[in-house]
Amino acid sequence: MARRRSSGPKRKPTAKRRPPAKRRPSRTKLVYDFAEGNKDMKYLLGGKGANLAEMTNLGLPVPPGFTITTDACRTYMDTKKLPPGLMAEVEDHLRRLERKMKRKLGDPADPLLVSVRSGSMFSMPGMMDTVLNLGMNDESVEGLTKQTNDERYAWDCYRRFIQMFGKIVVGISGEVFEDILDEAKLARSKKMKTKVSEVKDTDLTADDLRDVVDHFKNVFQKESKARFPQKPSMQLAMAIEAVFNSWNNRRAQEYRRREGIDDALGTAVNVQSMVFGNKGFDSGTGVAFTRDPGTGKRGVYGDYLANAQGEDVVAGIRTPEPLAALRKINRKAYDELDKIMKLLEKHYRDMCDIEFTIEQGALWMLQTRVGKRTPPAAVKLAVDMVEERLITKVEALGRVTPEQLDQLLHPQFDPNARAEVIAKGVNASPGAAVGKVVFDADTAVEWVEKGEKVVLVRDETNPDDVHGMYAAEGILTARGGKTSHAAVVARGAGKPCVVGADGIRIDYAGKKFESNGRTIKQGEVISVDGTTGTVVAGEVKLVEPKPSKEFTTLLGWADQARKLGIRANADTPEDAKRAREFGAEGIGLARTEHMFLGDRLPIVRRAILAETDAERDEALEDLRKLQRQDFVGIFKAMDGLPVTIRLLDPPLHEFLPDSKTLAVELERLRIAGDIARIDLIDRVAADRKKLLSAVERLEESNPMMGMRGCRLGLVLPGLYRMQVQAIMEAACELKRKGNKPGVEIMIPLVGIPKELEVLRAECEDVARRVMKETGVRVPYLVGTMIEVPRAALVAGEIAEDAEFFSFGTNDLTQMTYAFSRDDAEGKFLTEYLEKDILEVNPFESIDQTGVGRLVEIATREGRESNPKLKVGVCGEHGGDPTSIGFFAKVGLDYVSCSPFRVPIARLAAAQAALGSGEAASK
Amino acid sequence: MARRRSSGPKRKPTAKRRPPAKRRPSRTKLVYDFAEGNKDMKYLLGGKGANLAEMTNLGLPVPPGFTITTDACRTYMDTKKLPPGLMAEVEDHLRRLERKMKRKLGDPADPLLVSVRSGSMFSMPGMMDTVLNLGMNDESVEGLTKQTNDERYAWDCYRRFIQMFGKIVVGISGEVFEDILDEAKLARSKKMKTKVSEVKDTDLTADDLRDVVDHFKNVFQKESKARFPQKPSMQLAMAIEAVFNSWNNRRAQEYRRREGIDDALGTAVNVQSMVFGNKGFDSGTGVAFTRDPGTGKRGVYGDYLANAQGEDVVAGIRTPEPLAALRKINRKAYDELDKIMKLLEKHYRDMCDIEFTIEQGALWMLQTRVGKRTPPAAVKLAVDMVEERLITKVEALGRVTPEQLDQLLHPQFDPNARAEVIAKGVNASPGAAVGKVVFDADTAVEWVEKGEKVVLVRDETNPDDVHGMYAAEGILTARGGKTSHAAVVARGAGKPCVVGADGIRIDYAGKKFESNGRTIKQGEVISVDGTTGTVVAGEVKLVEPKPSKEFTTLLGWADQARKLGIRANADTPEDAKRAREFGAEGIGLARTEHMFLGDRLPIVRRAILAETDAERDEALEDLRKLQRQDFVGIFKAMDGLPVTIRLLDPPLHEFLPDSKTLAVELERLRIAGDIARIDLIDRVAADRKKLLSAVERLEESNPMMGMRGCRLGLVLPGLYRMQVQAIMEAACELKRKGNKPGVEIMIPLVGIPKELEVLRAECEDVARRVMKETGVRVPYLVGTMIEVPRAALVAGEIAEDAEFFSFGTNDLTQMTYAFSRDDAEGKFLTEYLEKDILEVNPFESIDQTGVGRLVEIATREGRESNPKLKVGVCGEHGGDPTSIGFFAKVGLDYVSCSPFRVPIARLAAAQAALGSGEAASK
Questions:
Q1: What are A563-606's pLDDT values in tens digits?
Q2: Angle, to 10 degrees, between the axis of helix A206-224 and the axis of helix A174-192?
Q3: pLDDT tens-digit series, residues B231-287
Q4: Which residues 840-859 on chain B approach chain A with CB closer than 8 angstroms?
Q5: Which residues of B touch A705 (CB under 8 A)?
Q6: Chain A residues within an 8 Å CB radius of B816
Q7: If I label B224, which of B88, B335, B451, B828 is the partner at 20 to 30 A Cα–Cα?
Q8: Cβ-nearest to B702 among A817, A823, A828
Q9: Residue A438 pairs with which residues in a beta bridge?
Q10: ∠A915-A916-A922 over CA atoms, to 5°?
Q11: How high is the ipTM of this complex?
């Protein structure tokens, strides 16, 4: 059934979802008739209540009822008592309901039955409790018999009510009741002379059920030390309290933590007259969507189950038929439903999800809401509805979340592949991965080094596992939520990850896990989909995302709407091309580190370890020739668009071997030399010793805050000059060939205006020389990263020498918090998120009060001193929708993000500009 | 001679000394008669010119003259030409001077001679050039003969003038002239029939000198391709230009760099009629101070040299007599001088330094200025002058610099000790040290480990030498200034250091150095005085400073004047006692790290490496008992005053061995195990491996920004609770005994308000429990360090849970600049200071624009949200006078510094409050 599919996007657990600013209007009214509310009152009436009210006011056939507000629930949570006056108000509304229904609760002649359902501001499907058939008692069961002319049915309702009430209101274990039912079936089987396993619930007669009810009442009294309440008003008060309490059951608390819903919201309670879909084959129940929630295709879509109640559908005991079945059974009801769905879609101006029941031919609407949808459906729906003139383009842009786009852009399971789902968990980091199961980080690394692909499976991860996580294709854990260590690290590393798959049981010693009755051993292949949280046995074919026509259309609208420019962080021509395909309008950050790695490492080491200026200059010269070609490639791929190239940033010891490894090796050589007394060993040892001492000289206690960035440029003569020369030579070469290289040279880690002043002068000097030598003029900009807190604080001065600022929000976050990301994410950050010391990981979504304040100061003061200053962001936050909303508010010129996030950023920027969608909501 | 003693304090090269704000009044007047200026016009007229003007206007006997302004010099530096109109103005003033003197420049009958002297805003003794006897030519030499009736004298004047003019104006080597003089002496020796070495300048006759002049003129023409200028106006223009040029000679530039004087100031030029102290024994010259500049004792003090010119005194060829000698020779002149000195001291309201000449009985004042003085003299003078009602207490407090106090507080050479001074250098880090000479860092460490005391002697230092510098008692380098690597590191480490002792020549291979003709070998003892820059062979007895009566008086006045409280950073009862003696009003930072070191390390390691909660708790319990006694000691020593105790801050791996050492050791054990196959070795290896993996788990890539400070408190259960319990138990124990412990608990590294909220609640919980158990109530405060940039940016929120803020400006500087101090000071910081990228080391004096802005924001916003918030500083900046001035301006409640700097801080705080002295000037 569609409702059970967790196909809708899980919202990201960023800042807690909270009620709108006006929290508590000074009202004391605690109960609303459905006719008194409307769809915008979700905070007070919950989603279900607000929508029932809306439908009631639209004149749709909604079983009458009323809603007890979330205010009442909040008071209950504070005081642990039902608010004074609540039950009086309830009684009052109940009387009105009874008048309207012309039936009375508990009436021995013609009783009214009601359902008591939870319903909070944000949907929390299945997390809280519901009591149905309330109003059944020893007297009304007779009335129901008369009313329905079906004694068996009436007694079955009664026993169901006691069972549900006992379980939910008093907390009696379901097994106790099942045992009694089983005994009744056993008795019946003897009478039927058949095997007990063949006896169905429906085989129990009215008399059987009467006995069952007696037993149930006894059990109830035994377990709860109180008689089963016969008074409907007592039943109602107890049920309301039970629903309030269910807001804080563990399941609901965990769901809210995972989804980032505020614990203080509370739930409303809907008391509604019951209608029955199980009164024969002219009755039934169904759920439907006004369009296909999986694909977004036009036309209603849903399931119908004749002679059943909603609970039967949810329980999945019987398989429902497609909605079309109803058309055959009851054309009138079907047509009415169809009309209502058209009306609802028009009214809500969105695809709606409804629940309905048909009682003896009559259609009743039980629920509606804007339907959840898969990411492709979200995009198609939005674009289609604009074409149908149902919504505007602006609205369409607000209808797709950036996260939905994100899910469209990762590799996914081939939808046509057959898959044996063995577990479901929390979708912690999007994308799909296939690999052999391993259970520890060392094995992961070992196997990967042998060329295998692996999926690391753990109960939960900790810092000791990080190397294995980086080596693995994907990660699966049995425990944890979206802020668990595994989730945080996986997202940081861009690895697909499913956490909290609590169905799996790992046997580390046996090197296997069990899930859903299936045992998977180390080395067997599984596939994990971090977008949906699905875990599958065996290899699932993965498909690369293909953007639909609607996707392109929607992003075209986004481009028209947004004010922020969108660039990509790309270091190579390949990345640049991909970014351009995704719609990037330039490169906001081209790192040059990789131009010093790979087969160039020996040359780089020559430069670093040079003992004379001449040696160093020669090595730099070799590098220049190679890097010039690197830059030609990047400029070509981005021809006509700006390319911000960051001069070398990392500390030099990153280009040398690790000193601990060297020290151990040296010790080994030393001992071998002592033992073997071979000259060669001594010579090798002497070489290693020299290298070790060079490495130790360059090592730093806190490299993040050491000799890196512009400090390299200032202290190492020739390094930046070499890079600038290579850049300008590449640009001049292309310009001569008719290309349009967009050169922007970015000096990293500036914190002192003079640093930029000196290095800018050097850049200009080199550029002038290259242009003079080549006879080609290429316009270029020189700017800086703002990534050190001081740079933001003295931005006014720095801007005097900068043509652009690019906020390096990763490092700015590290320095502002004094969080070394490497250390923090593995260690205390997880704990901080779990303990609510931090609401959001500041490396995922920008810290607006602290780091953001620096961004604001620097932008304002930088522009005050240099009104032409271009200002952008090139930290990872440039791809985070909430952060994009913030950057738009601050008034930056552009954001730059990884190529895959460019579409997301385009949408988020449009939403920010339009004041709609997630990027605008924080 | 007193002028040559570098007894005055060298000013600290902090921010460049610059002219007052109003730089260029729109004036075009380029020449001022002495009568037109006054002592406050130093920026325009230079120090010498301004004071000559002042004396002229006081009616003192000053040889008339005029001053060419620094404006003219600045124009000259910009345009490389004398400003248009300058020489016309000069001619004009010259005519007036001639009228006044009734003599004319170059007059063949009765010529006027003038001196042309430099004189800039800040004294730069001997750095620039002077031309004397200007106006001598072939005609005026005859006039001078007539005037003086001394032909020999006139020709000697002439040859001196050509020599000086040739050397200074045209740049002819002095040797060329000396050779000619030597030849003349040789000729004379033949005539005298004596050895040439016995012929003196004065033996040369007028005729000899006439020949010499001819030779000089020829040489001049040959070397300068131009005839020696006969026209006095031409001589004057050339001399003025030469003096302007001397502003930028290398010597002057280096002096300015060392003293932090702005290169753009330029020099004035004083043209003054010559008076002659060498016209016989009724003539003479001298320098004098109105009180003893060495001790501050009352009564004039100076030197006199009969029949000599100032240059003779400076050249040190003849030894002057005490000033009293003049009294015998010329009582009238002496009395007049004495009267003038009294007048000057009264007029300048300070001790003055004067130069005078007596020409044939008549006294002429050539210069005066406020005299430099030693630190003890500065203190005594200030206090005495208040007693004499010459100045106010407020003025007295402005007369002593905090640096002078600093010098009074370090160990110094015993002034009574005999010392063989072998070199002088730049006083880079105060205090004196004695030790055996070593020439490399490794030897330094090795010897120190054997129990020796060493002085590290290097040409200059670099990061590879740092471990040796820390091991050494003192450091001596042949090269470098106050911002050299050696100087920066030594000041940071508090080691006495003399740099740039350019007389020493090191022979590393021979392990010895030579200086002043003396050879010192490795292992020989030397003594260095970093306060004065003196290097002495052998051991000099050191004396601990003893504060004088005046010192105590002055600081008493400071305490009355200051608004900032002064606390000390002290971790032990001993430090606390010392701080209290120095006048500290509490402890602003008691670190607790040391309570986890020493013989407690094994317990700490047990806690860190514990495998169960019980193991850890037990270790923590052991620590608590020990630490409780630590706190008792500190509270007792500071009884009645506040003690801010910082809970544990450093990362835990600091308490474990280094992983590289462990890895190497493990490798050795592994190999030994393989070879020997002894079970014991394998067991030891297994132990080491376990320890290594624990260390590696705790190691961080950037520990400064890792798991430390409050993060430890939040993530490690029990640690902070243990410390708080120990603190409160100690406090309660003392309170019960009648003491008054001033408990302030400080949580370090807070950057997120919730961190403090949670830990504060824990502190309160523990405190309540302890007070309940002991039945004693002790008031206590809980606050936090503001040392992470974010803490400053969200200070308003943090202040809701803090009773005090203490700025940890060391870490705040590190994070704000992204400067890891350990790495930066050894690496790029020196280069930054040398290249003027940084004007000041931000770890020595607070960066007011960047870090200071955060301090301001946090103070303002913290107090807005919590008006009772106490705000202080406990970084090293708390002892830096300029920084103290800033903190006073921001309005902090107190600063806290190392005990030895408490007196300095008291004075600086007073100066800040009074708006006088260094702390107020930035």
A1: 999 999 999 999 999 899 999 999 999 999 999 988 899 999 99
A2: 150
A3: 999 999 999 999 999 999 988 988 888 777 899 999 999 999 999 898 888 999 998
A4: 847, 849-851, 853-854
A5: 702, 704-705, 814-815, 817-820, 823-824
A6: 751, 788-790, 793, 815
A7: B88
A8: A823
A9: A456
A10: 75
A11: 0.81
B321 in Cβ contact with B303 (< 8 Å): yes
Contact predicate B468/B491, CB 8 Å: no
Q: Are β-strands B518-521 and B525-529 bridged in parallel, bridged antiparallel, or unpaired? A: unpaired
Q: Cβ–Cβ contacts within 10 Å for residue A915, how many?
A: 13
Substitution target in A467, A649, A660 with the highest count of B β-carbons within 10 Å is A660
Residue pair A608/A602 in contact (Cβ under 8 Å)? The answer is: no
Cβ of B707 within 8 Å of Cβ of A828? The answer is: yes
The residues that bridge with B111 in the sheet, in sequence order, are B104
Tokens of A480: 């944890």
Alpha-carbon distance of A859 to A157, in angstroms, equals 67
Half-sphere exposure of B523 (CA within 13 A, CB side): 2
A677 and chain B: CB distance < 8 Å anywhere? no
The Cα B698–Cα A817 span in angstroms is: 20
pTM of the predicted protein model: 0.82
Residue A623 C-alpha, separation from nearest chain B C-alpha, in angstroms: 24
User: Can you read off the two tokens belonging to residue B41?
Assistant: 């016009």
Q: Residues of B680-712 as b/e, b for ≥16 C-beta within 10 angstroms?
A: ebbebbeebeebbebbeebbbebbbbbbbbbbb
- Extract the tokens encoding A886: 């913030």
Cross-chain CB nearest to A705 (options B668, B751, B820): B820
- Closest residue by Cα to residue A798 from A869, A851, A743, A854: A869
Total count of residues recorded for chain B: 922
Residue B305: strand pairing partners: B285
A347 is catalytic: no
Q: What is the distance in angstroms between the Cα of A480 and the nearest Cα belonging to chain B?
A: 18
pLDDT at A920 (0 to 100): 45
DSSP A139: T
- Judged by CB atoms within 8 Å, which residues 640-669 of A form the interface with B? 659-660, 663-664, 667-668
- Report chain A residues whose CB lies below 8 A from the CB of B668: 667, 671
Buried residues in B872-901 as b, exposed as e (16+ CB within 10 A): bbbbbbbbbbbbbbbbbebebbbbbbbbbb
d(CA A407, CA A393) in angstroms, rounded, equals 22
Using one digit for the tens of pLDDT, what is the confidence trace for B663-717?
A: 999 998 888 888 888 888 888 888 888 888 888 888 888 999 999 999 999 998 7
Tokens representing residue B173 in the block: 């080597």
Instruction: Give which of B583, B591, B645 is closest to B909, Cα–Cα.
Output: B583
Q: What is the mean pLDDT of residues A398-423?
A: 87
CA R_g for chain A: 33
Residue A284, amino acid: G
The burial of B161, by beta-carbon neighbours within 10 Å (0-12 exposed, 13-18 middle, 19 or more buried), is given as buried
User: From A715, which residue of chain B is nearest by alpha-carbon distance?
Assistant: B828
B704 close to A (CB below 8 A): yes
Who among B660, B671, B755 is closest to A660 (CB)? B660
Of the candidates A464, A660, A667, the beta carbon closest to that of B668 is on A667
Name residue B57's amino acid.
N
pLDDT of res. A922: 39
Query: How far, in Å, CA of B860 to CA of B862, rounded?
Result: 6
